Amino acid sequence: MDVRLNSVRIDREPTTPMACLVDGFGREINYLRLSVTDRCNLRCFYCMRDEVTFLPKSEILSLEEMERLAASFIRLGVRKLRLTGGEPLVRPGVMGLIERLGAWVGSGELDELTLTSNGTLLAGQAVALYAAGVRRINVSLDTLDEYVFQRITRREGLADVLAGIDAARAAGIAVRVNMVAMSGINDAEFDKVIRWCGDHDCDLALIEVMPLGLAADHYLPLDMVREHLMQRWQLTPVDDHTGGPARYWRVEETGCRLAFITPMSHSFCAECNRVRVTCSGRLVLCLGQRDGVDLRPALRASEADVRLEREILSAIARKPAGHGFASGRPCAEIRPMWQLGG
Ligand code: SAM
Ligand code: SF4
């Protein structure tokens, strides 16, 4: 059988019928987050140390290997693909990969291609992203204050992020702003950011900080934040389930949606539909567990994808029931998001 996914050709009998990525708990896995790089041009203190050792180039999948990997996941039933990092837009050549992956949206093999970006390089790529088929994007923006931005990211760049969001909206790409909520850092800015998102026609997601390293002192349970916000904003629950941890509300005053992402205080694992692959090809089955499998040897062993797909299938069958963040395990066990592919 000759199945062709754009430039990626797969000559073989399918190892399995379509849509068969079902784990041992009966959850259908149809969402892949693929990290295209561990590099980043910011150093958000809750994510990365200022001095970090990045992976050697030889351990990072080539763009062609990433395309093959994505093709295999799609053949096995993945319908939604999110590129992440590190910062995905810093990887040289990434736009070519996005164009090739985007063609699968055009042909119906993929429902959605999207990315999570820090927005600093977005202004220059927004039109090309839209042309490639990207219709939604998540942009991280924790503050509207340049001083606080530099305190969080250890770099300058707020104006670039704001310009990136404007360019994406102008290009026709829907934007969800991701704001990591941190006590003592940006907790005085929630109202301002909600209003800003309303004015710029963006959804907003408040994300519970995972207390890694320097972020440990800034954990803020979002139940409490929502209660406070409800005293000032009219929030109506919206039934938009994505199979992930986000729970959506409509802000009636702005018409935009507000999500609360609460991995620390709530378990969303029963409906989990996703897995991650790091830029070195490690399939990570759960955000909060160490289980995973290194797919790079299978990718590099052969140009055929039979072994690769077998390894994906057997790994998915072992996906853990849940992340166990609330079990009292020390948070040091959770890997930083820049390594995981956030
Ligand atoms: N560089 C891109 C960005 O910042 O959007 C993509 C990668 S980043 C690792 C993906 C997401 O993970 C971002 O929204 C970021 O805010 C979030 N993140 C990183 N570390 C986190 C932490 N300790 N707790 C909660 N969210 C975190
Ligand atoms: Fe870079 Fe994103 Fe991590 Fe910030 S959160 S350091 S932008 S990867």
Strand order of the largest sheet: 9-10-11-8-7-6-5-4-3-12-13-14
> Whole-Å distance between the termini?
36 Å
Overall structural class, as computed from helix and strand content, comes to alpha/beta
CATH classification, class level:
Alpha Beta
Q: Which regions contain 5 or more consecutive residues with pLDDT less than 50?
A: 1-17, 328-333
The whole-angstrom Rg is 20 Å
Bound molecules: S-adenosylmethionine, iron/sulfur cluster
Q: Number of DSSP strands?
A: 14
Helix content: 25-40%
Can you give the mean pLDDT? 89
- Helix and strand sequence: EEEHEHEHEHHEHEHEEEEEEHHH
Major sheet summary line? 12 strands, mixed
Number of self-contained structural domains? 1
Give the strand content.
15-25%
CATH architecture: Alpha-Beta Barrel
Shape: globular
CATH topology, what is it called? TIM Barrel
The CATH homologous superfamily is named: Aldolase class I
Number of helices: 10
Key words describing this protein structure:
alpha/beta; 342 residues; disordered N terminus; TIM Barrel; single chain; binds iron/sulfur cluster; binds S-adenosylmethionine
Task: Describe the 3D structure.
It is globular, with a radius of gyration of 20 Å. It has a twelve-stranded mixed sheet with strand order 9-10-11-8-7-6-5-4-3-12-13-14. With 342 residues, it is of the alpha/beta class. α2 runs parallel beside α3. A hairpin with a 4-residue loop joins β12 and β13 (282-284). The chain is built from ten helices and 14 strands. The longest helix has 14 residues, at 158-171. Mean pLDDT is 89; it is low at 1-17 and 328-333. The chain has a single domain, classed as Aldolase class I (TIM Barrel). It has helices spanning 63-75, 94-106, 126-132, 146-153, 158-171, 190-199, 222-230, 296-301, 306-317, 337-340; strands at residues 2-5, 8-11, 31-35, 80-84, 112-117, 136-140, 174-181, 203-208, 235-237, 246-251, 257-261, 274-277, 282-284, 292-294. Bound molecules: S-adenosylmethionine (SAM) and iron/sulfur cluster.
